[in-house]
Design goal:
Blueprint: H1 2-17, H2 31-60, H3 62-71, H4 77-97, H5 101-119, H6 128-151
Length: 164
């Protein structure tokens, strides 16, 4: 009771002097919320940037990638390399910038599913080294697919995104 009385007197004194620290407005964001927004942005830069750079490489190295796609039995290999490059450039930019992320995830899905099963079909490889490389890339692509699908559960518009 005495503590409560002292507290009340102290608050009244500080209020009358104007020295009581103001409480944050109800819409103020906590440091944790701000930090999480910037961490989410950093994750988008890393994840979207990965696909953006890979897509650019599809265009830069189309001459090297086309014979490999043909050897894997991909129909219209040059067109497939260029088309898949377009998908991951658009998907990567969408995630990176936060513009229409559902469409970006769709583009990444349209790239990752066929690429995983057509280009990284480790179960068909007879050479142990090729089998291991394909198995690693297959698992990586499936993990990237799972990460893309998880992005669908983040409420939109995403924080620190470009408006569209």
């Amino acid at each position: 009771m005495a503590v409560s009385l002292v507290s009340t007197i102290l608050k009244a004194t500080l209020l009358s002097c104007g020295n009581l620290p103001q409480m944050a407005p109800p819409n103020a964001r906590s440091i944790r919320e701000v930090l999480m927004q910037y961490l989410f942005l950093a994750g988008r830069v890393l994840y979207g940037g990965f696909f953006l750079l890979a897509g650019i490489d599809h265009f830069r190295h189309v001459g090297m990638m086309t014979p490999y796609a043909a050897a894997k039995g991909v129909p219209a290999p040059r067109l497939s390399v260029l088309g898949s490059g377009s998908l991951i450039v658009l998907g990567g930019l969408s995630v990176l910038l936060g513009i229409r992320p559902t469409w970006g995830v769709l583009a990444l899905t349209l790239f990752l599913v066929p690429t995983s099963f057509l280009m990284h079909n480790y179960w068909a490889a007879t050479d142990p080294t090729v089998r291991q490389l394909d198995a690693t890339n297959f698992k990586k692509n499936i993990a990237l697919l799972g990460a893309a699908w998880m992005l669908l559960f983040i409420p939109q518009p995403w924080p620190l995104s470009l408006p569209w």
